[in-house]
Amino acid sequence: MENPNLVQLDLSITLRDLFAGMAMQGMISNPTGNGPLSILGFSGDGNGANTAYEVADAMLKARKGEN
């Protein structure tokens, strides 16, 4: 029996989008700008979305062994 209160979504996001979302979550949890992202050398250009995708791209490269 299906639960009528359950909503099922097909978000169809890419792995890059997933990684960027996780990076964004981390940035939001530490909004001071003094966290690991700035220490690791990511731009922090004031546009959180750009920085999140910059981190996602680095994660994808690391997955492929392209450090």
Q: Could you characterize the architecture of this molecule?
A:
The protein is built from three helices and no strands. The chain has 67 residues and is an all-alpha fold. It has a domain at 15-28 and 36-64. It is extended.
CA radius of gyration: 16 Å
Order of helical and strand elements: HHH
Number of strands: 0
Main sheet characteristics:
none
Uncertain spans: none
> Total number of helical segments?
3
Distance between the termini: 49 Å
Short description:
By secondary structure, the chain is mainly alpha-helical. The protein contains three helices and no strands.
List keywords for this structure.
single chain; 67 residues; mainly alpha; 54% helix; 0% strand; extended
Layout: helices, strands, pairs:
Elements: H1 15-29, H2 36-39, H3 48-64
